[in-house]
Amino acid sequence: MKCPFCGHLETQVVETRLAEDGDFIRRRRQCGACEKRFTTYEKPEVSFPAIVKKDGRRIEYHRDKLRASLNLALRKRPVSTEQVDGAIERMEEKLLNLGVREVASHRIGELVMRELKKLDKVAYVRFASVYRNFEDIDEFKTLVDEVQS
């Protein structure tokens, strides 16, 4: 591991700890040249399916895009970052458990809608109105009636 301070290539692991949730390993390292300490994190790399857009393009999965969609729908709503992180974890787990190489973008949209429905009804309606491309107020009314029942 290269030292971030001096660029020396020899560093020594001083301490290793498993993260509280067990998802990654935290390592304290010390540079052999400048003797400064720094922390590295090690986590498994998983391969998510490619996303197939409506027009047939295939794009790479990006967690940040999923988070941005959720945050946009949840803007100014009383939902914590921990709740959003949990929703993202559940959606990613479902994507990985599909065991496929590609997944249609509408399937991810449905996963987002399910999670938003659990988190916040207003955010769910916001997202659904854009995702389902509502044309008139009757479609809104139908969705709101569905959420209220």
Total number of strands: 6
Report the mean per-residue pLDDT as an integer: 91
Secondary structure tally, helices = 5
SS-derived structural category: alpha+beta
| Number of domain units | 2
User: What is the assembly state of the chains in this entry?
Assistant: single chain
Q: In angstroms, what separates the terminal alpha carbons?
A: 56 Å
Major sheet details: 3 strands, antiparallel
Rg, rounded, reads: 21 Å
Q: Beta-strand percentage? A: 15-25%
Poorly predicted regions = none
Record the strand order, biggest sheet: 1-2-3
Global geometry: elongated
Could you state the order of secondary-structure elements as H and E? EEEEEHHEHHH
**Share of residues in helices:** 40-55%
Outline the secondary-structure elements.
Blueprint: E1 11-18, E2 25-31, E3 37-42, E4 50-52, E5 58-59, H1 63-73, H2 81-98, E6 102-104, H3 105-119, H4 121-131, H5 137-148
Parallel strand pairs: 4-6
Antiparallel strand pairs: 1-2, 2-3, 4-5
Helix pairs in contact: 1-4, 2-3, 3-4, 4-5
Provide structural commentary.
With 149 residues, this protein is an alpha+beta fold. It folds into 2 domains: 32 residues; 99 residues. Helices cover 45% and strands 19% of the residues. The chain has 5 helices and 6 strands; from the N terminus they run E-E-E-E-E-H-H-E-H-H-H. The strands form 2 sheets. Strands 1-2-3 form a 3-stranded antiparallel sheet, with no helix packed on it. Strands 5-4-6 form a 3-stranded mixed sheet. Helix 3 runs antiparallel to helix 4. The longest helix is centred in the middle third of the chain and has 18 residues. The chain is elongated.
